[in-house]
Specification:
alpha+beta, five-stranded antiparallel beta sheet, 4 helices, 9 strands, 26% helix, globular
């Protein structure tokens, strides 16, 4: 039996402004009574496609098809704090990602075009780009937490240049996931 690899495709976020502001917000939210596991600065990313456990044959298909995606560098903005699933339930805290040039969608559309033909399924909820910054365990003071989240709804974090995407492996540990890059696909440089 072949080994299974927990696999996803993502775009990493490493802008110092975005990372430091995200850490400030994580701290504020936890101070408002939200007990959560904050996402480590080096793990900030937008997931384009989560596959779950793949055997070596299916992983090779993902890697081979990801290599063929073509895109130019583009910028996105990180703005606003929100949470899933919404209403009074706070399970995941995220930052909004605005993609005015549809660069993320362009990458995802090419992946969908190639991989759905090979039997890969995409989450029916569709694609809403966001950066998860915390997974909530419980909330001590829900009114205070909701008020804090409402105050952060329009907060601006900064701009990120996207010039690559990655096929990643996620290894689950008791201290949280450890991500490693299986493949880095770089944007095509603009011509003269």
């Amino acid at each position: 039996m072949s080994e299974l690899t927990r696999t996803f495709i993502a775009v990493d976020f490493d802008s110092p402004d975005i990372v430091s502001r995200a850490q400030e917000v994580q701290k504020k939210i936890m101070e408002s009574g939200v007990v959560m596991k904050p996402v480590e600065p080096q793990n900030l990313h937008v997931t384009l496609w989560f596959f779950g456990e793949l055997d070596s044959g299916r992983l090779k298909m993902v890697l081979d098809n990801a290599r063929q995606v073509k895109f130019k560098p583009f910028k996105v903005e990180v703005k606003g704090v929100g949470y899933f699933p919404g209403g009074n339930r706070i399970n995941v805290i995220w930052l909004g990602v605005s993609d005015p040039s549809n660069g993320l969608k362009c990458i995802l559309d090419q992946l969908l075009e190639r991989l759905t033909k090979l039997g890969f399924r995409y989450d029916d909820r569709g694609f809403t780009p966001h950066l998860t910054i915390g997974r909530v365990k419980y909330v001590k003071n829900k009114p205070m937490a909701l008020q804090q989240l409402a105050q952060l709804r329009e907060l601006y974090f900064g701009e990120q240049l996207i010039d690559s995407f990655k096929v990643k492996k996620s290894t689950l540990t008791s201290r949280g996931p450890i991500y490693s890059d299986l493949l880095v696909v770089k944007a095509e440089e603009d011509g003269p």
